[in-house]
User: Which sequence fits this backbone?
């Protein structure tokens, strides 16, 4: 007889506790948006499960639950616990994977395989249709042919890579707990990709990721791994790959030639263009480029709505955060970041309301904690945008007068950063080099009054500076 097994939410609660070292009932309830009664039931079930299988101990102290030594032993016989009744989210995941790898599905066959009615299957299909719509794909059904994705090769390729990345991010092929809640995925996927080839592709992804020092976090590593897996599977199926409309301006061919050996090239059949295109996005920190256009459009509207400089480092971070929010919510990827219930009041702030309106307009899914996180980030960013970045240009090559003025400016509340340059160096580089500065201050350089800079420009003479008769606040019109 099948033993009492774990469900998807049970596994998420286990992972949340392990990720954060401990968790309270409040924190779990807020994170997964379920009642505290449900969380208590899940914790009791987990406690019993890990104890019966000698996996570890779930302990409680001061209202927080934790695993002894923050580990559980997952080396146990999974067979009695493998689910034969997939939950909705897991069914959808399995169906999408089969569509990607087989191209089409017979609805009668898949409903029998999953043991569900056609009404239930149609409900799952509608959710899949909504997901792929972001990628300009349709889910089409034709009698005798079944259902299949319809759209450009480029869009199908993009969606497939995102989806394969999701599977690896959630450890579908490495976690015994994920195998329990969805055994279909791993058994099915191994028909197309063996452990041995997977290990080789993982090593190749590690080699490329570290060589180019991408450092964009776990999602972008898994996007790269998924890209390599898609290329490998596509070569076997004879797929003609799309390089995409947004081709790279970087020529990384020589760099890849340096690190790829003959076995690497054989795995991907020497298909370098897709890899180069992706690496270019990562190197240029253009994260939103690989996402559907609705995400790019939403990010641009956030820049505009909050009057942010999209070329600033923090605005690049904003783009990074928004793309992650889209990816997690659209592809049902759980986030184990703690969310304080008190932060819900932030959702009534004008910043949060504007953000939610933009997300809703572009049909980008989000959670309460996503908005609370972006609220704090934008609040800080908006306060920083009021501060000025100043460049002081000194006629003298020694720049000692500029440094004297810098000391007077650097601690003013309205000043973010102050840099100094000699006039020679200032003229040496193109004006685009200085786009991050809001204000230019020229010392002993009245000739620059004739220039037409798209900045606030101020002109002082060194006599005023040395005499200490300069009114700094008036100079910068700081009230």
Assistant:
């Amino acid at each position: 007889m099948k033993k009492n097994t774990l469900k998807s939410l049970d596994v998420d609660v286990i992972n949340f506790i392990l990720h954060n070292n401990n968790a309270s009932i409040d924190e779990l309830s807020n994170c997964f948006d379920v009642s505290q009664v449900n969380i208590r039931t899940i914790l009791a079930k987990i406690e019993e499960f890990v104890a019966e299988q000698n996996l570890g101990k779930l302990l409680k102290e001061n209202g927080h639950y934790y695993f002894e030594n923050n580990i559980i032993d997952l080396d146990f016989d999974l067979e009695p616990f493998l689910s034969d009744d997939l939950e909705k989210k897991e069914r959808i995941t399995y169906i999408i994977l089969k569509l990607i790898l087989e191209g089409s599905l017979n609805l009668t066959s898949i409903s029998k395989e999953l043991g569900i009615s056609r009404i239930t299957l149609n409900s799952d299909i509608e959710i899949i249709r909504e997901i792929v719509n972001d990628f300009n794909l349709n889910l089409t059904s034709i009698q005798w042919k079944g259902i299949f994705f319809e759209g450009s090769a480029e869009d199908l390729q993009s969606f497939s890579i995102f989806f394969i990345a999701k599977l690896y991010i959630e450890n579908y092929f490495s976690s015994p707990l994920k195998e329990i809640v969805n055994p279909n995925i791993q058994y099915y996927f191994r028909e197309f990709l063996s452990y041995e080839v997977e290990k080789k592709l993982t090593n190749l992804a590690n080699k490329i990721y570290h060589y180019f020092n991408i450092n964009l976090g776990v999602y972008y590593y898994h996007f790269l791994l998924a890209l390599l897996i898609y290329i490998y599977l596509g070569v076997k199926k004879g797929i003609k790959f799309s390089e995409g409309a947004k081709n790279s301006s970087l020529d990384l061919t020589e760099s890849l030639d340096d690190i790829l050996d003959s076995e690497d090239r054989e795995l991907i059949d020497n298909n370098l263009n897709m890899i180069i295109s992706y690496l270019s996005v990562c190197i240029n920190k253009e994260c939103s480029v690989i996402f559907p256009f609705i995400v790019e459009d939403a990010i641009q509207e956030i820049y505009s709505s909050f009057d942010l400089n999209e070329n600033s480092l923090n605005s690049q971070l904003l783009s990074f955060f928004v793309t992650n929010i889209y990816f997690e919510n659209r592809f049902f990827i759980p986030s184990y970041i703690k969310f304080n219930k008190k932060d819900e009041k932030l959702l009534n702030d004008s910043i949060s309301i504007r953000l939610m309106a933009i997300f809703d307009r572009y049909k980008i899914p989000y959670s309460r904690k996503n908005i609370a996180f972006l609220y704090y980030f934008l609040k800080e960013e908006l306060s920083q945008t009021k501060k000025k970045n100043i460049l002081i240009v000194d006629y003298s090559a020694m720049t000692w007068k500029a440094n004297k003025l810098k000391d007077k400016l650097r601690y003013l509340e309205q000043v973010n950063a102050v840099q100094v340059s000699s006039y020679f160096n200032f003229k040496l580089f193109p004006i685009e080099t200085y786009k991050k500065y809001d204000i230019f201050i020229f010392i002993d350089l009245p000739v620059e009054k004739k220039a037409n800079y798209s900045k606030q420009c101020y002109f002082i003479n060194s006599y005023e500076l040395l005499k200490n008769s300069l009114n700094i606040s008036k100079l910068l019109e700081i009230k």
